[in-house]
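Example 3.2
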Amino acid sequence: MLRGDRGALTLSYVIVMPVFLLSLMVIVQAAVWYMARETALAAARQGADAARTAQQPPGRGAQVAVAFARSAAPGFLLAPAASAAGSSASTVMIRVTGRVPSLVPGMVIRVSEVVTAPVERFTADPAATSGPDRRSAGSARAVPSGARSARAVPSDG
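Structure, written as tokens:
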């Protein structure tokens, strides 16, 4: 070893190790953010599914969304909150918000996800009570408006 090279290895560790550790922290923080975002999205979907079924009480979707967010991935979405603001008689809109746990003290990261879905609305199928394949009297099927099958799927309007 040359006399001028003394301490070079220590100097390289002083430069390389903080960069390596910072890169590792960024990767872990991105993974935690992604998990919180996916939890908020799944909670919003759960809330929208609960709110869009026929004759649900007001606020039911937001309650279901918050309960799901708290139980699905505890620790990844902090202080979850949900709102049904923006919903109408034909459309449900659930927004779930929360904070992401931060590896950097003092850094606040928030996530917000919105799911919009049509409200289920069923009407009698006129083909069920008339036509060549007439069924017995009183066998009208409840189908969504605009649909021609007996499956219970939501209408678009």
